[in-house]
Design brief:
Layout (H helix, E strand, L loop, with lengths): L1 E7 L2 H7 L5 E7 L2 H4 L5 H13 L3 E8 L7 H6 L2 H6 L2 E4 L3 H10 L3 E4 L1 E11 L2 E6 L15 H4 L26 H12 L2 H4 L23
Parallel strand pairs: 2-3, 2-4, 4-5
Antiparallel strand pairs: 1-6, 6-7
Length: 217
Amino acid sequence: MIRSITQKKPEEELDRLLEGMSRIFIVGCGTCTTLTRTGGEPEVQDLKKNFAGKGKLITGTTVVPVACDNLTREFLLEFGDAVKQADCLLITSCAFGVQTIARQLKKMVVPAVNTMFIGKETAFGVFDEICTQCGTCIIGEMGGICPVTNCHKGLVNGPCGGTNHGKCEIDSAKDCVWTLIYNRLKELGRLDSMRKYQKQRNHQGEPKPGKFKLPVM
């Protein structure tokens, strides 16, 4: 299952973000951050206990089913007075969820986590990045394996000179993605595809924010 992978913000950063705000309503998310144990019910209660101990008044807490859903507003309306009384909402969802809630409610919002990447659970409690959403997908020439995401150096032409017995020189516990690509294309009888030169890219060169418009029919 694909999830937004998040990491808890340092306590000192949250203290700074919440400075001057004494009444807080805490919102968790029942999907991604619950799975990664960064923003589900236990984490919401930990935040409540922590900030109550620092003199903050917690006006209420809840875990919404899906923070990035447009129905979140209706869900939070059930906590009307508790939300209205709060100086801000402390939200343990990914950045998409935080922005969704910010658009729906006229309240200051503070994210309690950092959004790292889109990933998949590959072992119990281990989440690997599967896509950087770079907008220039080349996996069709790589046997379905993405070097942009999986190569520590972000190489689009490889391997580098540091690969050793199929392992990455930066992380010896990690398979070199270019070895995986080679073996995959060899198995498929498509090694010529790997020999095609991929134009180097400026990963910072795309205009922001991104926008996609459906063509007029």
